[in-house]
Amino acid sequence: MRPGQTLAFDLIATDPDGDPIQFTLGGSAGFAPDVLGATIAPQAQAGQVRRARFTWPVDCRAITSPAGQTQQLVFTASSTTPCGTRQLAPTLQIPVIVDYGNVPPVLTTTLPQPTTPTDTVVIRLPLGQPYSATLTGTDANGDVLTMSAAGRGFSLAATGMHFTTEARPAGQAGATFTWLPTCDGVAVVNGKPMPLTVTFQLQEATCRPSPRPAASASRC
Q: All domains of the chain, ordered by start, with CATH?
């Protein structure tokens, strides 16, 4: 099973005396399927037979650490005699594995490439010279991607910067960054322009996301 899928099947219990039958749901050590959204919906008993529907919409909470460990769904059927004696049927154990793997998204850009992943790219522009760069995101798992840009301590619009995202299908993202340096958007200290740092980030919508940031310091 993978997050987003639903596990569902019927349970059937019989009692030769036609005593009332009850179902219970449990799990192996450290596994509580009812807490994770699993349910049993019993039907009305018909003579010696009672059915129940098990349903489990698997979500991110079901992922083990590390992922891929085997856990047991444990089902029990019991009946109660007219004298109040509770009788248990042998338990039914069903192994389940919640399969989850994630390849981090990839962010590519026409911005200058840093020497190392932690370096900040410096772009120097004269006043009035427009600049633009494109950013593209891809995800091998096909997860929905979101791309963003934020100025460090300043508003992009206030400095003549604009970040425009594109509508793309799941697993893809695109955006364009533009900047027109003007005097109003430049802070000067001791006769020198202060750098403006913009951080671009690609975020995936998945159970355990791996954001992919890329930062650049722009100076005019």
A: 6-97 (2.60.40), 106-219 (2.60.40.10)
